[in-house]
Amino acid sequence: MLGAEWLMKQNIHIIVAAAKWTGDRLKYRRHRLAEYLDRLPDTDGVIWVCPSPEGEDPEFTDLRNGISQWAISDLLPQKFFRFGRYLDLFYQKKTGLFAKQLEHMEGNFHFFLWYTCPIFPKLAEQFPWTRVIYDCSDLWAAPIGGGHSPLSVLRRKLIARSEQRVINAADTLFCTSDYLHDRVSERAAQAKQSRIFTIENGVSFSRFSEMRRATQVLPEHFQGTILGYIGGIKPKLDFALIREAARRKPEWLFLFVGPDGTGPDSLFKKLREKKNVLWTGSVSPEEVPQYTQLVTIGIMPYKPSVYNQAVFPLKLFEFLAAGKPAVGLHLPSTKKYDQAGVYRELEDGDTAAFIKVCEEMEQAAGMETFIRKRQELAGTKDWNALFARMDSLIQQDYWEH
User: Fold this and answer.
1) Virtual CA dihedral for 182, 183, 186, 187, nearest 10 degrees?
2) Shared fold status for 4-202+382-400 and 205-379
3) Tell me, what's the pLDDT at 3?
4) CA distances, 353 to each of 267, 298, 349 (Å)
5) Number of C-alpha atoms within 13 angstroms, CB side, residue 227?
6) For residue 285, what are the CA distances in angstroms to 120, 289, 334?
7) Where are the domains of the chain?
8) How many CB atoms lie within 10 A of CB 42?
9) Which class is domain 205-379?
10) How far apart are CA 194 and CA 190, in angstroms?
11) 73, β-bridge pairs
């Protein structure tokens, strides 16, 4: 049982995030975690601590959802200067100022510091936190597009050192895939091995399982098969494979929904030249379930890379909750969920193999038996249940150690 002193105090959760709340133009795991924590009856407040390219003075900003934001400006707005987020010299005064803002509340609350990315490691040392948690969702030091350059090597070293400090400081560590669990375990002290847990990404099941009226973005009178990708469009995706699949299957429509983070001269731009490829651009997180309803088959076409070895895609259980079959490429973390008519994970990036498995899913897409299996699986992965388990493990760890 929890002690009386614990029960009498409310909790304040500080989320260290990679960007401002709306900066990603998407809702990631860290956003859902913050909203979950804010809903808990023993939470007094959630503070989103994040970097900002704009040269703004650090101060609290109240977001519309009731969460507070503390933005820490980068050295300069150019992307190159983001390296300062990993070096104490360039941010510690600003994080120290934030810690001082909490000092007058010390003794009245429990303070939980959640790292959702390995920036600002010094913050873990600047306040007597009740617990420090690392929720690791990416292989942060690996290049997302698989490329290498002298600058990227330096960047990887900076991130790796910063992440090691976060791992060392954390009392409890969560990883979104078994691959990440193994990598973090290799770097964690022996005493912490029992405090590292795999908690995969989940789904807001009720939002995606409801039948919603699909949004109107398709070509007029189109009634065919739609292969849909929904999320951040980044260099980790295999655009060359999809371009070839679109050429071979002109009767299919390839739908991409989300912000383009690939740059102006990318393969994604060439892909969009195909007549049967449609890109909507960014949509609000509230609209995503409507776009999911448009899809016949959800696709997650990732490249073979070290970075993608660690990925557990947010979209998998969202597609399944909506009753849609899904196909993933080079996503070994999802292999355990591979089953006919529900989800297929391919390790071979051959276009013919991709088309063949999509044709199989095309036949099974509307079958009630498979729709039920997809939704039953997704129903076991609701965010609320996953985050409740994390909360329970943190409290259990606190009293055991």
Assistant:
1) -140
2) yes
3) 43
4) 21, 16, 8
5) 25
6) 28, 8, 23
7) 4-202+382-400, 205-379
8) 12
9) alpha beta
10) 8
11) 52
* Cβ neighbours for 179, distance < 8 A, ≥ 6 positions apart: 139, 309, 310, 332, 333
Q: How many CB atoms lie within 10 A of CB 20?
A: 17
Query: Where do we find the tokens 């309803």?
Result: 293
CATH number for the region 4-202+382-400 comes to 3.40.50.2000
Q: Which amino acid is at 106?
A: E
Instruction: Compute the C-alpha angle 1/133/231, nearest 5°.
Output: 120
Total residue length of the chain: 401
67 Cβ partners below 8 Å, 6+ apart? 21, 34, 35, 38, 46, 47, 48
Pairing of strands 68-73, 43-52: parallel
Helix axes 178-187, 150-169, angle to 10 degrees: 80
Q: Which long-range contacts (CB under 8 A, 24 or more apart) does 358-362 make?
A: 358/227, 358/245, 358/252, 358/297, 358/299, 358/327, 361/297, 361/325, 361/326, 361/327, 362/225, 362/296, 362/297
Residue 8 is predicted with a pLDDT of: 59
Say yes or no to pLDDT of 95 above 90: yes
| Burial classification of residue 285, based on how many CB atoms lie within 10 Å of its CB (0-12 exposed, 13-18 middle, 19 or more buried) | middle
Which sign, positive or negative, has the C-alpha torsion 330, 336, 338, 342? Answer: negative
DSSP 275-308: TTEEE-----GGGHHHHHHH-SEEEEEB-SSHHH
Buried b (16+ CB within 10 A) or exposed e, 147-182: eeeeeeeebeebbeebbebbbebbbbbbbbbebbbe
Q: Which residue has the tokens 């997302």?
A: 144
pLDDT at res. 265? 65
Q: How many angstroms separate the CA atoms of 75 and 176, rounded? A: 31
Q: Which two tokens stand for residue 361?
A: 């899913």
Q: Render pLDDT for 7-63 as a digit per residue (tens, 0 to 9).
A: 557 999 999 999 999 988 889 999 999 999 999 999 999 999 999 988 666 778 899
List for the chain the helix, strand, coil content (%; round to 5). Answer: 45, 20, 35
Least Cα distance to 169 among 116, 113, 101 occurs for 113
Give pTM, 2 decimals: 0.93
